[in-house]
Amino acid sequence: MEKPRFLPSTPQEVPVIAIVGSGGGFRAMVGFSGVMKALYESGVLDCATYIAGLSGSTWSVIFSSGYTMLSFTNPPSLPPSHSSPPL
């Protein structure tokens, strides 16, 4: 069976896809959330290599990656070997 022509045959042929959201506070967060949802539903988000945001769209990136407000109020603790010495 012949391999479809549109699939990369080597890792070097795989495109690097970046998704970037702009700043703008709450409006950017809401708008970029819609973009992220559409990219997820279309399957494009699974192909992304990098996702970045500025200002409001950063909140969409954070929450779409699985963080919740609880993550920020109760951060994971590091083992003692990774802690900074007391000041």
TrEMBL record:
InterPro entries: Acyl_Trfase/lysoPLipase (IPR016035), LysoPLipase_cat_dom (IPR002642). One of its GO terms (biological process) is glycerophospholipid catabolic process. Keywords: Hydrolase, Lipid degradation, Lipid metabolism. Residues 1-87 form the PLA2c domain. Pfam families: PLA2_B. GO terms for cellular component: cytosol; endoplasmic reticulum; Golgi apparatus; nucleus. GO terms for molecular function: calcium ion binding; calcium-dependent phospholipase A2 activity; calcium-dependent phospholipid binding. This is PLA2c domain-containing protein. The lineage of its organism: Eukaryota, Metazoa, Chordata, Craniata, Vertebrata.
